[in-house]
Amino acid sequence: MANEKYMEYLAYVKEYLAQNGGIVSPNPRHPFRSRFQHTIRVLHWCSRLAEGVEGVDKEALYTAAIFHDIGYADHDNGCHAVRSGRAFHEYAENCQMDVAFREKVERLIYAHSNKALLQQEGVSLELVLLMEADLLDEEGAMGIVWDCMAMGNIHASSYAAAYYHIMENSNKAERNPMVTEQAKAFWEKKKRVAAEFAEILAEDLMIGSPYFEIP
Predict the structure, then answer these.
(1) Model confidence band, residue 78 (pLDDT cutoffs 50, 70, 90)
(2) How much is the average pLDDT of 106-129?
(3) Kindly report the CA angle at 134 between 46 and 18, in degrees rounded to 5?
(4) Contact at 8 Å (CB) between 35 and 22?
(5) How far apart are CA 36 and CA 23, in angstroms?
(6) Which of 35, 67, 97, 141 could pair with 88 in a Cys bridge, judged by C-beta atoms 3.0 to 4.6 Å apart?
């Protein structure tokens, strides 16, 4: 789905995030997290989820994916969706985008953080796919790597500490939040990866063995 227009959008988003301190996570445990790389992956997930699905406005979906987190900064990121929508509005006006298209993309960006909308009737297919793509990133294998890197950044003193962190995060019990069948399958696959990894790690560490409990 390489597209010159989308490359221009991404370059703008990267520069905007850099200027506002929004690329690197403000959490000292997560300096490895890049908001811009997350954006690229969400765009990729949107492309995967939209493949073969009829009635999707792919241009609106992909544009919203590129701009959905542009409002991240080094503070107050609870309201990043509002800032992202406003930043896209300004960019779209400067580029003289079609008004109806701009407004559709803005609605997707403003709403993408409200994941409760996934369970509501009447939500547009584009918003469903955008939210699913956003949720699928950094799960499964990536979630495990995140957990291990986070524990490394606080100098965890044992493999067991990483194991228990994985059990509380990437391998925690949670329902499948996806709506489309393809996204549900991706989610289940990611959760199987985390569960199988945690099971093997528990065996390797002898979690539950009386030897493990020796101080």
Answers:
(1) confident
(2) 96
(3) 100
(4) yes
(5) 6
(6) 67
pLDDT, mean of residues 117-140: 96
Contacts of 185 (CB under 8 A, 6+ apart): none
Q: Dump pLDDT digits (tens) for 165-212.
A: 999 999 999 999 999 999 999 999 999 999 999 999 999 999 988 876
Q: Are 119 and 95 in contact (CB under 8 A)?
A: no
